[in-house]
Amino acid sequence: MSSHDDKRSPVPAFHLDGVSKSYPGVHALRDVTLEGYPGEVLAICGANGAGKSTMARLLAGQETPTSGSVRIGSHGQIRKPADAEAAGVLLMHQEPLVIEDFTVEENVWLTSLSSADGVKAWGTVRRDRGARTREALDAVGLSDLDPRTPVRSLGPGPRQMLALSRTSVNHHKVLLLDETTASTTEEHFRDVLELVDRERAAGVCVVFVSHRMPEVFAMADRIAVLRNGQLVDVVRTADTDPDEILTMMIGEAVSALEPFDMKPDPAADPILEVRGLSSGSAHDIDLDVRPGEIVGIYGLVGSGRSSIARSISGHQDRRTGTVRVRGRPIPSGSPRRALEKGIAYLSEDRRREGFVPAFTNALNLTLATPGQDSRWGVINRRAEKARVATLLKRYQVKGGAETMTRSLSGGNQQKVCIAKWLEATPEVMVLDEPTKGIDVRARLNIYEIVRDLATGGKGVVVVTSEAEEALKLCSRILVLRDGAVVGTYDPLTSTTDDLIRASLGGDIS
Fold it and tell me: Which residues span the membrane (predicted)?
């Protein structure tokens, strides 16, 4: 745990004074007063929709308060992004801001191309980069990455670390990390922690918005807890524990989730049969999933776990191997045919592949099943409206049918994505990192949905980079290393240490 004394600068790095923020029908923040100080890490924790990201956007000038004021240091009120930038605020989003058609190097310097005074010529930036680009990449664990590499070839984790590399080339006094670690892996978190330690030592105020308790307690000096838009309390990390913070977040103690103790009938025929599958970095994969079984696929970055998920569901071509659902062959490289045959896939990248940003909840929820509410090609709007209302209630999605899905919190967006595919009544549901970037309450909601699927006799495949999640959620776990299955584990008799050791190929101490 980080150490931090109470010898603070007389001038706060930021100050929220009686801030409230309302949207039509929603009170995102209510009368919040909070300060952050130079050289400290302040965590902002809260359940889904508590107002965490709204607070970050207010500090970054991307939103203006309905009432109250936002000040950065000795600067005046922050009313727009240019004000925040001039005051030294740097915001890092949950979804990394990168341009796919640019190289790694161009993305490192992306936000340095503009300033409060206007746009800088790229040639001016080029003359000043050189070794600083390499230093910026080294600082976030990307020392092996060629600066000339196109960003479109990078996965979510490296993209997020690339965005974080900009802390080395942008002057700032307040660093806002809004669920930034949600797209990183366990391997990269040490790099994030080292970066935050450097920022603290340099006198930067780091605001860490997160729901991940281990990361909060590893990083933060103080923790501010929001619930339903109100500030519940601000406590020193040394004086509290995760259970107390979770209790403040959702209003009740969160008991440890028990492992999924439902075993499928070993004599039952598999719903899903995978034989000799090779795709991407995965090779020669055999996999059976029986009715009522949740099979976890755990591994580190590059182990091939997502290649298996995408190739099973038709989103990625198979080099070799067969996939069958109840004996029916699934063609390679066709998501539509896979869905018709009974396989639905939830992507790990919900913003790019999970929903249409320009669509409402109603349109996104019915996107995969338009025929359910139509006859002879004409949609029955009354039937569609009733179905959408039922789905919003069943999956506890915040917001109405006409709410834009992109405006929802990460947990609610994920529930919209899951509901959309479950409406297609698949035999097999393949979930790639289903709880990435969502808070504890939404995570428990999704665990309940997944377990209900298995209890209803469906087959479920869960791809995860979190060993603890694999043990809590799954009935059987396959561990991948270098594209191959290196072990099968029973969650009732295994530990996180077992999974991590197997994924690394030896002793992790």
Answer: none
